[in-house]
Amino acid sequence: MKIVSKPGQADWRLRSLAGLFAFALLMLLGAAVAVAESEAQDDSRWPVIKSALFGEREILPGEGVIALETPYRALDAAVVPIEITAPLAQTPERYIESLHLVIDNNPVPLAGVFHFPGNRTWDALSTRIRVDSYTHVRAIAETNDGKLYMARNFVKASGGCSAPSLKDPEAAQAQLGRMKLRLPETLTSEQTLPLQLMIKHPNSSGLQFDQIARSYIPADYIQRLELTYGGEPLLTLDGNISISEDPSIRFSFAPGDASRITVHAEDSTGRHFEQTFDLPAPKGG
């Protein structure tokens, strides 16, 4: 069977295809504009937050000092992994003194403040956070000369601050405050020491609803975490409700000759937890 195109039919098909292509392009451009407008709108709380935390101080771009890695769309809004790296070559003369972690659209935007004494170089820190709605997440580093540097990412997640725990309350209570420190089996003297600290704690936000008791679960979270290395301060965290249940912190730093790390934690109800961990002996690199 032979198909014969009528005059003008090919032109009509081309015009139709061009029209469909133009329509699809407009839809894509419209979606991109909507996303940009959404992100700009979600940036509206930042001036108020900035003023409350830093006043009129200038915040510089974080390139070369601080970097932030987050998922663009989180799989679980109650457990959103973030990683902060410090490309700055830190020395006793110039180092990152504190690190503010801000989640713009959370009920309490300031998720935590990490403090560093400057006696140990560090290059990476990661934890897990709750995200209540689409938001910018910011890492603001303050160096010991008083300058501020910021890295930020937009994260799509919602409901993380009110998401209920999936763990049995009695079992969680029995393990409350237990700590685990993951370390490499061996360490050479030229390596940075990567560690992961995990603490069993509900870190309740006060926004989670108990379906059985028909009431909100009171806020109960780690508010102060102190790590010492050989008796000297290594890392301190002033935490809040935006840190996920069972807090986990990964931290890489340049070790010395000390053989122990001690962790002390205090939660918002006044309970204290403490544990000391032995470190592997360094081998010649």
Structure description:
With 285 residues, this protein is α+β, with helices and mostly antiparallel strands. It has one domain: Immunoglobulins (Immunoglobulin-like, Sandwich), CATH 2.60.40.10. It has 3 helices and 19 strands. A 9-stranded mixed beta sheet has the order 1-8-7-4-5-15-14-17-18, with no helix packed on it. A 6-stranded antiparallel beta sheet has the order 2-3-6-16-11-9, with no helix packed on it. A hairpin with a 4-residue loop joins strand 17 and strand 18. The chain is globular.
Search tags:
285 residues; alpha+beta; Immunoglobulin-like; six-stranded antiparallel β-sheet; 3 helices; globular
